[in-house]
Structure formats: C-alpha cells, structure tokens
Specification:
This protein is of the alpha/beta class. It contains 19 helices and ten strands. The protein is 49% helix and 8% strand.
Amino acid sequence: MKTYITEDFLLSSQTARDLYHGTARVLPIYDYHTHLPPDQIAEDRRFENLFEIWLAGDHYKWRAMRTNGIPERFCTGDATPREKFDAWTRTVPATLRNPLHHWTHLELLRYFDIETLLDESTADEIWERTKERLAAPEFSVCGLLKRSNVAVVCTTDDPTDTLEFHRRIRASGTLATKVYPTFRPDKALAVNQPEIFGPWREKLCAVTGSECRSLSGFLDALESRHAYFHENGGRLSDHGLSHCYSNPCTTGEAAAIYERARDGKDVSAGDQHAFAAYLMIFFGRLDARRGWVKQLHLGAQRNNNSRLLKALGPDTGFDSIGDWSQAASLAGYLDALDQTNELPKTILYNLNPADNYLMGTMAGNFQDGSVAGKIQFGSGWWFLDQKEGMQWQINALSNLGLLSRFVGMLTDSRSFLSYPRHEYFRRILCNIIGAEVDRGELPNDGEMLAGLVRDVCFENANRYFALDLD
C-alpha cells in the first residue's frame, strides 16, 4: 500500500499549506538538544543496514514491540539484525495512531524515497532498498546531517568527557553542521548512590588532576570542567531531574555530606536533596557567569521495572511520566538565583502534561526584559514530543506567554534519521496557525505569519543560543 504521507500531510487548510511549503519547509534545523554520539560524527560513521541506524538503541520502538508481544530477544537480545528488523515490521501495523507510525513512514520517505507502508509483506524490499542506499557516500553521518539541512547539533556530554571528538570535528573543517557539547553534570548530584558517585568522582579527579578531597576541591574541579567546555564551544548545560532541588543548604552542611559520600558512607535522601540544591545553585552561577543557557528536564520517573533494569540496564524503555510536585521547588530555585542577579537564560521542560500551565506561568515570573524570552517553556519532551503533546505545549505557551519568542523544536534523539521530527513539528505549528487564520482568530497577513514561523522554527534559537555559525 502506498504511504499516506503526502505533501500536505497534517496541513488542513490552504493557509497552513502556504506557511509550511513557502516558509517552514526550507528553513535549516537548529537542534540544540540531542543525544547524538559525537564520536560517530567525528568518524563520519557509515551504517550497513536499517537495524544499525534505526533500531539499535531506540527504546521508543522497543516499548512498542514488547507491547505487541515481541520477545525481548528481538528488542535488546541476541537476535540477528535482520530478525530484529523483521520483528519491527510485524509491529509497525499495530502502531496506528501512535506517532511511531508517522515517524517511521516520514523517515522512509525523506531519506530513502520509499512510498510503501512497512509491514511483513514489504520487509524484504525495504530492507534491500535501504541497505543499497546506505552504501552510498551521501548516507554517512555527515552526509545525513547535510541532507537534513542541520545547521547546529548540540550533544549531551558528561563533565568528565575529554571532548576529543568535538575537537576533531572542529579541526576537520569539513562539516557544515556546527557541533557543540552540552555540560550535563547529573552524576555530581548522586551522593546517595555510591556505585555511581564513587567511580564518577574518581574520573573527575583524573581528568582535572585534583584529589577532590574537600568540597572546595570538588567544586574547583567542576568549575574547571565548565571552563573547559566553554573553551571548546559549549554554551549550554542540561540537568535531568525528577524535580528541581531548592532545599536550603549551607556550605558547611554540603561539605559534611560530600565527605560522607567521598568515603562511601550512607547519605540519606534528605541529605542528597540538600546537596543537590547546593550544587544546582553553584551550576546556575557558573552558567550565568559565562552567559550559558541552562536546560531543566523535569518529571521523568526512571527505571520502574526493577527486574528488567537488573537484566538490561538503564535507558532500555522502562521510564515513565512522574507526578512530583514541581511549582514550589522550581520557583525556589529560580528565585534563589534571581535574587543575586545570577539567573541564566533557562529552558524549562516538563514531562507531565498536567504541568503545562505551571511551566508556562513559571517562565513568566522570571522574565526581566534583559533578553527576549529569557526563561523558555520548552518544547514537548519525550512522551510529549508527538502531535497532541506538541499542540498542548504550543497552546499553553501561546495562552500564557509569547509564542513569537519560542525557540522551537529539538530532536532529543540518538538517531541520525530523526530529523523529520522537526518537519513534524513545523507542520503542526503551521496547521495550528492556519486554522486560526481561517476562523478569523488571527490576521490574514502573509508577511506577519511567515515571520512568526521563521522565528519559531529557526531564528529565535539562533539569536537565543548565540552559537557561532560562521
């Protein structure tokens, strides 16, 4: 059967079609938050088949396959790449009304010009056609970034990373896409998890040449890594938290907690929260001092299935939306930095849709006129980066803030075939605007509307992050 992804997919009015085809479609992509591996960019990796580039590491697909009755062997187990692909083809027809059905066929069409639906009957043809295309020079990692018109990629990197591959990318001078690191110090907060904090602290000591015996030495080591990221082009930080930490904690209390964690002693949940709050203020000040953008990803409840976590490890598809109370702690954190004029530009992402209006109004509390859209209500994230979730976020932001200052979409992906998600977002955005124009709820001014679309899809991010595109 031929694909339903037509030129006017998701565009239900002429105004929407004009906005998308005339403006949004040709804009470059500013992908300011991803989990793309920089080593594969530096080495310009090639992929032999769809499994390698499409299925390996994709927990979205694994969750759907398990739900469809596919045994784990065909998700993360020892089945062959072709067997895993065949298991996915058996699942795709079952994903109707799930965004995976849209994304799957958008990616097949945009990268491989495949207009047939993927199922068991088309598996052989699509496997062979995509394998042949992947062998072409333009289907290397760098070729795919060029084909996708990606101007900027920001990866997600641990403070202990040497950034060797980022330096190699920049030194080569051959990639038009600019690639920047993002400082993600989540493990620094894990003082109540000695199996994580201990080895990570030792690695931090090794890369900085510091023993980090005291809290001040630990903070100096972290600051030196922040400076190192800055020297290597980094201008963003990121934190993945269940909720924002804002418990009051003195330097003396933080030092005592750190020393217990350094020595492998037990740290209570309350003390971990206090120490995390202390460090988050420290990180916020570093970001403000260097003019960075801070990202707060809030609300994921991770590793819910303890049996499968033990068998398969983290990031294998057993995380979900959490229901932590966000308002008081987030307000306390932002306010603590704002009191001393050390609140950096910040993007707030929520995973629970019940928090959409909370985030939309919280962002408005800390706009200070210094930067347009200084505090951003971020795009639909993870379980919300689908049609309905994007619509909810766009509508909440529009009702409570300024859509015109929104920095737009990101992939948050590990796959180099994920860039049609930007197309998906752009079509949804244009459709929302077009429908309201047709209902007489927005002015039918083509130049004004095109300017809004250009800003949200690219220009706002370009101005906000101020990364060097030359």
